């Protein structure tokens, strides 16, 4: 299992939190997602054999947010 903290810009409200947590949480292999709105960080706990970091980043990007 892997844990990563991503820097995500463009998140500013509760809808942003729900969009990111909801869509990342739906990915097979993701165990936990926590958005820290005030710092622009997203913590993700995932199984790297089931989902790639690239897939997680692309899913955030698809929601309209920039992943650094």
From TrEMBL:
InterPro entries: CopZ, Cu-bd, Heavy-metal-associated_CS, HMA_Cu_ion-bd, HMA_dom, HMA_dom_sf
Highest taxon above the source species: Bacteria
Coarse class of the protein's main subcellular location: cytoplasm
Pfam family, one: HMA
Localization (cell): Cytoplasm
Entries under PROSITE patterns matching the protein: HMA_1, HMA_2
Gene3D superfamilies: 3.30.70.100
Keyword Chaperone listed: yes
Alphabetically ordered keywords of this record: Chaperone, Copper, Cytoplasm, Metal-binding
GO molecular function: copper ion binding
One record GO biological process: copper ion transport
Residues in HMA domain copies: 2-68
Example of a GO cellular component annotation carried by this entry: cytoplasm
Annotated protein name in UniProt: Copper chaperone CopZ
């Amino acid at each position: 299992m892997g844990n990563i903290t991503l820097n995500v810009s463009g998140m500013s409200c509760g809808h942003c939190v729900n969009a990111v947590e909801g869509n990342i949480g739906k990915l097979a292999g993701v165990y936990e997602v926590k958005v820290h709105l005030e710092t622009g960080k997203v913590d993700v706990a995932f199984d790297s054999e089931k989902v790639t970091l690239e897939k997680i980043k692309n899913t955030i990007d698809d929601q309209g947010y920039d992943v650094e």
